[in-house]
Amino acid sequence: MKIIKVASYEEMSAHAGQIIINKVKDHPSSILGLATGGTPLGTYRRIIEDHERNHTSYRDVSTINLDEYVGLNEDHPQSYHMYMKEHLFSQIDVQPQHTYLPDGTAKDLSKECQHYDQLIEKLGGIDLQLLGIGQNGHIGFNEPGTSFESRTHVIDLMESTRKANARYFSNVNEVPHHAITMGIRSIVESKEILLLASGKKKSSALSRLLEGNVTEEFPASILTRHPQVTLIADEAALSKSQ
Ligand code: F6R
């Protein structure tokens, strides 16, 4: 794992944004795996700024997101569909029909999961996957205990994850109990992975990750076996690591 230590969230975002911009410039029809949450917001801002200033085009890019809450429709303000529209898709020239997220309102969720896996396959896999990390080591919504062999599936969100995400809802009771998430197997099949972490809250997770003990009890640990992972983390997030 290549580690880039930076001073701040802004610096992390600038680095990550530039890596994605360069990828798209070099390979205009890249398949980008995208994440939501607080961590990638600055990266998306960088991509938008560059698009406005330098006209980097996303016309031929396809994006595939990690996850979506079960039960929230596309227009729900806290859905990840809405997050992506607001924070990225509506501000660059990506074609809406080339942006994919799981449908958390599908009648048959297991069919939706299969469909999502087929989609990843049809796209030819993910060229660059952007990831945040949960305080419990989750990647996507793959909570501790999820099989490393998992494909897209429905997951019960842990109380700690629901609490961590409650800041986006009016209260924790409104946070859905389930989500559809890309599986760990699909994530690690990405050709390249960009893992971002910022702030003290992530310091224990990063120190456990960098200890190198690979276990399903700490999903992100599998990333240490991937040949092309870049971790960009700020000093606060790395404060408990050697
Ligand atoms: C989001 C996702 C999650 C987050 C993680 C960290 O699509 O898959 O794994 O990356 O929960 O969230 P933040 O960035 O809000 O700390």
TrEMBL record:
- Extract the SUPFAM superfamilies matched here: NagB/RpiA/CoA transferase-like (SSF100950)
* Matching PROSITE patterns: GLC_GALNAC_ISOMERASE
Which pathway does the UniProt entry assign to this protein?
Amino-sugar metabolism; N-acetylneuraminate degradation; D-fructose 6-phosphate from N-acetylneuraminate: step 5/5
Return the EC number: 3.5.99.6
Q: Which UniProt keywords apply?
A: Carbohydrate metabolism, Hydrolase
Check the record and name the InterPro entries matching this protein. Answer: Glc/Gal-6P_isomerase, Glucosamine6P_isomerase, Glucosamine6P_isomerase_CS, NagB/RpiA_transferase-like
Q: Which Pfam families match?
A: Glucosamine_iso
Q: Name one GO cellular component term.
A: cytoplasm
Q: Does the keyword Nucleotide-binding apply?
A: no
Q: Which family does it belong to?
A: Belongs to the glucosamine/galactosamine-6-phosphate isomerase family. NagB subfamily.
NCBIfam families, A to Z: nagB (TIGR00502)
Protein name (database record) = Glucosamine-6-phosphate deaminase
